[in-house]
Amino acid sequence: MDFSRLPRWWLAAAAVVPLALIALLAGVLAISSGALAPALRVGDPAPEFALADLDGEPVRLSDHAGQVVLVNFWASWCLPCVDEFPLLDEALAAHADEGLVVIGIVYRDRSEAARDFAAGFGADWPLAMDPGEQVAERYGVFGPPESWVIGRDGRVTSRQIGPYDAAALEAAIAEALATGTAEER
User: Fold this and answer.
1) Is there a contact between 50 and 82 (Cβ–Cβ < 8 Å)?
2) Residue 132, C-beta contacts closer than 8 angstroms, at least 6 positions apart
3) 52 contacts: CB under 8 Å, gap ≥ 6
């Protein structure tokens, strides 16, 4: 067959359609196998985790039942995390008496680098390692920084992909703090 007589659009379609079908099939197989699990959404119960912090001490979400917990996935190599870390520290200082807890989960980083990074910012909240990114996978993390605010009832009240700015962080925390008190549970 003489392909030179076919319209160019037909040749392009003949090349693209099989590739699109292969990509579609790969996506369906990945979703059905659980490789692309749906991300955690606002209103969902926050998945429990039990990790070790940078000193080997246990960090469990369930240890903070009845409190508002900000779970932040971060890394020392993450440039936006440099701007976000001081905001997390300020938020914790401003709202700790109201029941706010911050838990940092190190994402695809070495513990030594994470320790140095956190020490440079004076972070005094739990910073946990996530070997194999199992917790990150359950939370649907795309990359750092990513944060979830978990209300006193254990449900996600907000999700932030990318770094928080001060106003968005304050709004997310205020919303979660306003959704009830530990005594109401």
Assistant:
1) no
2) none
3) 58, 59, 128, 129
Sign of CA dihedral 22, 27, 28, 33: positive
55, two tokens: 């000193």
Say whether pTM exceeds 0.70. yes
How far apart (Å, rounded) are the C-alpha atoms in residues 111 and 117? 10
**Mean pLDDT per 10-residue segment, the chain (185 residues):** 61 54 53 54 95 96 96 97 95 96 97 95 93 94 95 96 96 90 42
CA distance 54 to 109: 12
